[in-house]
Amino acid sequence: MTKILSRLAIGATFCFSLMLTGCPVSSKYPLGVKGAVPADNNLLGTWAQDDEKTEATKVKITKGKEDNTYNLVVEEKGEAFMADATQFKAWLTVINNQNFLVLQENQDEKPSETYYVYHIKTGNNSITTNDITLKEKGADAITSIDAYRAEVTASIKSTDFLAGEIKWTRK
Questions:
Q1: CB atoms within 10 A of CB 167
Q2: How far apart are CA 56 and CA 76, in angstroms?
Q3: Dist CA 132 CA 136 (whole Å)
Q4: For residue 111, which phi and psi values (nearest 5 degrees)?
Q5: SS3 for 165?
Q6: Rounded Cα–Cα distance for residues 45 and 43 (Å)
């Protein structure tokens, strides 16, 4: 009985910590078509933030080889880093006039079928990113790009759609 209670406590602590620190949504489908939205040159550069409990504390974004794409390299991992790679192909997509950054893992310079997404706002030498929460049908609804976009469109109406805000500054 003690072992069961101990396991439940560990599981509850893990779930609670995920809610506090946020976790990016990963899927086998991207939120938007690669290169369909023009690149924003304000994203180019090296960006840092101080919260070590997040996925990364320093990233570098450069222009990608394909139109309207970026290369994103995690230069300093945070405690919550869970991806298999530190290099990503990235692009923007827009839903309801809100910008999202889609990241595709690159393993040994080969793109994988693992995608992450962040809500993103650019400012004067700053970027604010948020994890998103899927409120209608959840991650199980992600069966295609169109289904993913429909889930985000429905979820965006919730007041707690955005989580885990991170403010990045240009270095």
A1: 14
A2: 6
A3: 12
A4: -65, 140
A5: strand
A6: 6
